[in-house]
Amino acid sequence: MLENVIEFFRNLPKKKCDKCGEPIEEQHECYGNHCDKCNTL
């Protein structure tokens, strides 16, 4: 069962920035929607 969970996270597509569409260099399951360039926080 644990193997299925690991495979699920391993197979998630890379997250893309909502503004520019570039891949986000962080964990795919995080809550951020913007890359470092577009993040204004």
TrEMBL record:
InterPro entries: YhfH-like. It comes from the Bacteria. This is YhfH family protein. It comes from Psychrobacillus vulpis.
